[in-house]
Amino acid sequence: MQIWGQVWQMQIARGFPWRWALWWLVLPNLAFIAMWPIGGPRMAVPMTICGVITLLASGWSHHPARTMLAIAMFAFSLMLYTTMSFNLEPTEMLNSIEFAGELDPIQSPEYLLGGLLLVASLVALVVLGPRIPPLRTRDHRILAVALILLLINADVFATAATRGSYKMRAPEGAPVDSAVIQNDIGPATVKARNLLVIVVESWGVSSDPYDRALQDRLWNPGRWSARYEVTRGKSRYYGSTTSAELRELCGVWSAGFKSYDFDHADCLPEKFRAAGFRVEALHSFNGIFFDRAIWYPKIGFERALFAKELIAMGADRCSGSVFPGACDNDIPRLIGQRLREAPGQRKFLYWLTLNGHIPVPANPELGTDNCRIGDAAWRDQYPMLCRGFELQRQLADGITTEIMKPDFPDTDILIVGDHMPPYFNRDMRVRFDAAHVPWIMLRSRQGGKPLAPARAAS
């Protein structure tokens, strides 16, 4: 019986139209399959959905509708892969497509190669469509089910190591955690004249001892202790950068700005504004990306300064990354200028950094073309990680240079990460805590000076 079973299986395999499997299963998932040796999020759920659709359409002969269905599944899977890679809500992803012209993907070889593979897969779907036969027999459909299950299980196996590092949403009922909450920051608790909150793009908690030692040197509390009382910690995170902004500024778990109810917002900027502070936001990218120019005022910011305004104020333009905009290195100086204006007015400034967006290219404009952090063996093994740490070094040095100036105004400063760096490479991704981001709180030792009366809220 075993021999007859093997013969039957061989007959099915020999007569199976393998071009069908190539067109329906491999081409729509080719880019994700190519990432298996490197990393990437788990695609088992969208593969299952598309697999069911594929089985339902398995008997279709060539027709433009069949090709359109295959392309639709290709687009569906690509959208979910992208949103899961960066912990974005699908609505945020769709909203950002119209502003894709603001990005500069040619700065990233990784994005270029991935884009070429996606284009090649799409072209092959269209060109090969008329040549793909339908499945005619029950045995062939059984083998098709087996191939779909094989694809799903291969994806589960390939992505197992980084399964817990993709966190789009907080679990239902999870208590909100943030650096602002842990440090009890509010208008009544800030004793300094001013407050500065800095959310650092892709600043995560290193879980590898060697990396952690490097980060401790980059963000060494000793460089600020003469002027500030320094405390450090970590807080939980979920989602993307906009989720982190709402976490810190509004004290909520939100999957992104599209799902947040701004009409009932109870956020830090509005609280400080009501307490008489001048409240401003700074971000080095375009304000229309992720609608920040629209929702920043809704949570209480009186003014928002984006790339165009910051460059006009004297910041250089950094165009050497995927996200071109004003250079982060120049923003601390501009923040100092804003804080020195109208010295009788208390201020709350918020700054979202930009240059740390993954991937970080080797570019002289960013100062990442010759990273010298760590030892030679570490730099050779993790060049992208080295470049990311180099940007952190520049940022920490730039902040330190400004806030340690003798005439820097009396200011409490919170520095916090938004999410772990979303590296595609699993070898680098597993070197970070998948659940937490770091924070540093600098409380000014100048506190206690007489405070000017707060003006009435407008």
- Overall outline: elongated
Gap between N and C termini: 87 Å
Stretches where pLDDT falls below 50 for ≥5 residues?
3-8, 450-458
Q: What's the CATH H-level superfamily name of the largest domain? A: Alkaline Phosphatase, subunit A
CATH class descriptor of the largest domain:
Alpha Beta
- Per the CATH scheme, the topology name of the largest domain is Alkaline Phosphatase, subunit A
Oligomeric grouping of the chains: single chain
| Strand order across the largest sheet | 2-9-8-1-7-3-4
What's this entry about, in short?
Helix content is 43%, strand content 11%.
Topology:
Layout: H1 2-15, H2 18-26, H3 30-35, H4 44-56, H5 64-85, H6 90-97, H7 109-128, H8 138-158, H9 179-182, E1 194-200, H10 209-218, E2 228-236, H11 241-250, H12 268-274, E3 278-283, H13 292-298, E4 303-305, H14 307-312, E5 317-318, E6 325-326, H15 331-340, E7 347-352, H16 376-381, H17 383-403, E8 411-417, H18 426-429, E9 436-444
Parallel strand pairs: 1-7, 1-8, 3-4, 3-7
Antiparallel strand pairs: 2-9, 5-6, 8-9
Helix pairs in contact: 4-5, 4-8, 5-6, 15-17
Characterise this structure.
43% of the residues lie in helices and 11% in strands. Helix 4 packs antiparallel against helix 5 (64-85). The longest helix is centred in the N-terminal third of the chain and has 22 residues, at 64-85. The radius of gyration is 26 Å and the shape is elongated. It has 2 domains: 2-165, no CATH class; 179-444, 3-Layer(aba) Sandwich (Alkaline Phosphatase, subunit A). It has helices at 2-15, 18-26, 30-35, 44-56, 64-85, 90-97, 109-128, 138-158, 179-182, 209-218, 241-250, 268-274, 292-298, 307-312, 331-340, 376-381, 383-403, 426-429; strands spanning 194-200, 228-236, 278-283, 303-305, 317-318, 325-326, 347-352, 411-417, 436-444. The protein has 18 helices and 9 strands. With 458 residues, the chain is of the alpha/beta class. The strands form 2 sheets. It has a 7-stranded mixed beta sheet, sandwiched between helices. Strands 5-6 form a two-stranded antiparallel ribbon.
